[in-house]
Amino acid sequence: MSTTTKVAAGVLAGALGVTALTACGGDGGSGEDRGATASKTVTLVSHDSFNASPEVLKEFTERTGYTVKILKSGDAGEAVNKAVLTKGAPQGDVFFGVDNTLLSRALDNGVFQPYQAKGLDRVPEDLQLDKAEHRVTPVDTGDICVNYDKKFFADRKLAPPKTFDDLAKPAYKDMLVVENPERSSPGLGFLLGTAAEYGDGGWPDYWKKLKANGVKVADSWEIAYNQEFSGSAGGKKAKGDRPLVVSYASSPPVEVLYAEPQPEEAPTGVSTGTCFRQTEFAGLLAGAKNPEGGKALLDFLISKDFQEDVPLQMFVNPVAKDAELPALFTEHGATADDPHALDPKKIADNRDQWIQTWSSLVLR
Fold first, then answer.
1. For 206-236, what is each residue's pLDDT tens digit?
2. Helix pair 304-314, 291-301: axis angle to 10 deg
């Protein structure tokens, strides 16, 4: 998830993809000292889009005595696959970034050990997809939705599409760019959204209509959003000519935040009838070397301090009911009142076959 955070990527990047964040200085000392330091380090394994403000992670260190080390492992799918391959002998103590589209893969392979995080009662039960065993803890949610270039549609006096059905209409021919669901998390979310909308037998026919209507496929969100989409800052520079793109409901605030000067209104909008709800989870890795530090970190990930840091760091919504959204989100973000969703087991049972069917319909 959270590929929109690529806009702000690099804030926590370190050598070889590993970042250590600590309230203490220095890395010298005797072997005994270094051993003591290691025991107070908790390692968070994540996808590349994880981000948090140094001040908030420093607060965790001051509260618990644990230093957080972050190991980034590629995009969400790649990171989950690495976690599966290293199960029992994990690269860290906590894994963050498995979402509801890939959750069953991690759970079925025994990647996590159970732990009920403190403060979980502040998280809505419908987001606790493993509440019987508590192998994972919800951390954030985001909606994958079609974004549109406001100026493009205003200039043509054409209403932007609102629903999946609209996207297949002749009025929007050759306007939409989507990501390949085999390689992209938002691309997969959009495919799952169509499966939720049209059912097992209906979504392939829908994609035939999209193909006939000139849908374009990009290998990644970065290419689709920052090169092909005419509404983004990157797309404008690249002379992108597609006014519709699969992205996130939180993408418009990003366009405002990083613009100079900041506009009063976001240049992009969201077709809220096309949204698919994505929830990201964290879990204590089976075989973690520092399980106590991992438990403390999981507690912290749903604390009010961390939850209120989430929106402007990863451009997703907090899960804690007492976390307040920043004004940038409330003023420029979109809310899907009834986003599409699928049961994780249904996703697990059908995901690979759906992707294969999609490839045969759209790419050939």
1. 999 999 999 999 988 889 999 999 999 999 9
2. 70
